[in-house]
């Protein structure tokens, strides 16, 4: 894990969003509902109200919380990739919500590791953690929000276009 141990939960969630983005680019999967989920995951880094952010995620078309994918999305994904995609989405989403209403644990990092393993097993290169490491704020496990401008910088640095 290395760098992952120094990330706060917001950064872990953004990194998970980057993993999902990277997987989709690599697999040529593109859909507005997937973009919506990735944007939501990455917006945790600007969220001043974390429980509001978590609740917003429950209303997305792709929640990653055990609900089936919308058909228009599952039709896009090659059948041999669908299970991986579903597992990736669920692990990525868990990173930011598993410790939301309890004590901070090692669970966010464990879910992120599972997401990273899916990328590795699919020969998808992992995003570099270096850029994201510059956006660490606050001292606690969750950290403090960064500005919308800083989120744009992160998108630009990683080539994320949503």
What features would you highlight for this structure?
single chain, 162 residues, mainly alpha, 0% strand
Q: Any overview of this molecule?
A:
This protein has 162 residues and is mainly α. The protein is 57% helix and 0% strand. The chain has eight helices and no strands. The mean pLDDT is 95.
- Identify low-pLDDT runs: none
Strand percentage = under 5%
Largest sheet: none
Q: Roughly what percent helix?
A: 55-70%
H/E series, N to C?
Answer: HHHHHHHH
Q: How many helical stretches?
A: 8
Shape label: globular
The chain-level structural class is: mainly alpha
Cα radius of gyration in angstroms: 15 Å
The total of beta strands comes to 0
Mean pLDDT: 95
- Straight-line distance between termini: 28 Å
Topology:
Blueprint lengths: L8 H19 L4 H11 L7 H9 L12 H4 L4 H19 L9 H15 L7 H5 L14 H11 L4
Helix pairs in contact: 1-2, 1-5, 1-6, 5-6
Short description:
This protein is mainly alpha-helical and 162 residues long. Helix content is 57%, strand content 0%. It is globular.
């Amino acid at each position: 894990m290395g760098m992952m141990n120094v990330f706060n939960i917001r950064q872990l969630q953004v990194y998970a969003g980057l993993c999902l983005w990277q997987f989709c680019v690599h697999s040529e999967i593109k859909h507005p509902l997937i973009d919506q989920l990735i944007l939501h995951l990455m917006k945790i880094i600007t969220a001043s109200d974390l429980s509001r952010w978590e609740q917003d995620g429950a209303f997305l078309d792709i929640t990653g919380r055990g609900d089936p994918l919308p058909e228009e999305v599952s039709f896009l994904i090659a059948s041999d990739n669908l299970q991986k995609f579903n597992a990736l989405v669920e692990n990525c989403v868990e990173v930011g919500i598993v410790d939301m209403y309890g004590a901070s644990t090692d669970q966010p990092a464990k879910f992120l590791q599972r997401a990273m393993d899916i990328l590795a097993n699919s020969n998808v290169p992992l995003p570099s953690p270096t850029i994201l490491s510059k956006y660490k704020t606050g001292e606690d496990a969750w950290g403090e929000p960064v500005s919308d401008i800083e989120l744009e910088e992160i998108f630009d640095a990683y080539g994320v276009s949503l």
